[in-house]
Amino acid sequence: MLLFAGLGNPGAQYANNRHNVGFMAAEAIARRHDFSPWSKKFQGLVAEGRIGGEKVILLKPQTFMNLSGQSVGEALRFYKLTPSDLTVFYDELDLAAGKVRVKVGGGAGGHNGIRSIDQHSGQNYRRVRIGIGHPGAKAMVHGHVLGDFAKADREWLEVLLDAIADNSDLIAKGDDSGFMNRVTLALRDKLQPTGEDDTPPPKQKPAKAQSHIRQARPQTPAVKAPETGPMAAMLKKLFHKD
């Protein structure tokens, strides 16, 4: 059995915050793999299902972000799981928006939800860090993290969440590199055109043969329309479209 925990804050006012992307990932996984309906347990919301042959418990702590460890620790103890059975999905300021990185162990990096889980469960669990980008100044971090994703973000965010859900079986298997590669490829294929057009260029029609009389005529160079002066003003009036 594995425990997948997505971090966020409960309540409709936080639902679209960047800080709630962990909740969004958990919800995407539940939809993709037909998990059970969410129910209240362990100071959170829980759904059960199977991914890649493994039984997985999905958890969305409802303790607010800073106390996430209370909910996660309770679930681990109930199921007699170890930190190695735990995967946490959460937002990462220090990753560009849309990037995903996976690691086992490490520090909290200033993330209060991770700090709380470290205190209750130790540090040796898998962390799926979902980039939300940095606003550029420390004073802007709070508003950025607790701000909603912009409309322009929705396109890449939906692709990213689908890719996380579609490839979560690799997380269940412990194939972290394979998971990151698949997610990166999904984003590239759907959002970043290669710039190369595989369509063959149209065939050039052969130049129409001209008669010897037409060939003998002197070629009159094209006359460039004047850009200034009375003639230019007149042409502008004739062809200007409101």
For the largest sheet, list the strands in their spatial order: 2-3-4-1-5-7-6
Mean pLDDT: 86
User: How does the major sheet shape up?
Assistant: 7 strands, mixed
How does the overall form come out from the CA principal axes? globular
Number of helices in the DSSP assignment: 9
The SSE order reads EHEEEHEEHEHHHHHH
Helix content: 25-40%
**Radius of gyration (Å):** 29 Å
Strand content: 15-25%
Briefly note the structural class of the backbone.
Answer: alpha/beta
Count of β-strands: 7
| Ends distance | 68 Å
Low-confidence stretches: 194-200, 237-242
How would you summarize what this structure contains?
The protein has 242 residues and is of the alpha/beta class. It has nine helices and seven strands, in the order E-H-E-E-E-H-E-E-H-E-H-H-H-H-H-H.
